[in-house]
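Researcher: Good morning. I'm working through a list of sequences from a screen, and I'd like to move beyond sequence-only analysis. For each chain I'm collecting a predicted structure so we can compare shapes side by side. This is the next one on the list. No need for commentary yet; just the structure.
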Amino acid sequence: MGDNQIDVSPAAQAEYEAELVAFLEANPRPESGDFTHSVDGRNSYWKSIAAWWEAVPWEAVAGQWGCTSGGVGVTFNPPDEQGISSAGYGGMIDCGTLYESGTVPLLTEPVPRSEVDIAEQ
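Model: Good morning. Structure tokens for this chain:
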């Protein structure tokens, strides 16, 4: 491997993808539903999506791309004027020089590699 590249074998990448696929099959992403729900219903959704993000195997998300996980953080935004607290997550992965810097944020989504068309450099 050259400078600044991560050493994750193709076999390991396939194992990471299989781990992510198994997780997604057993734990589908919570549906947002109809956002005309009550404040409690909308807050319940944001709590469930935050719990799901925390449960995602982020090392597998990164590893399937030949990258390493640098951690993920889930945050809740303060309630808006209606009392709704939305949530967000941010992931960090290290891919060395495998991908263009603008591509790397796309790789932090918990989507199996076989479903995405992203070219290595």
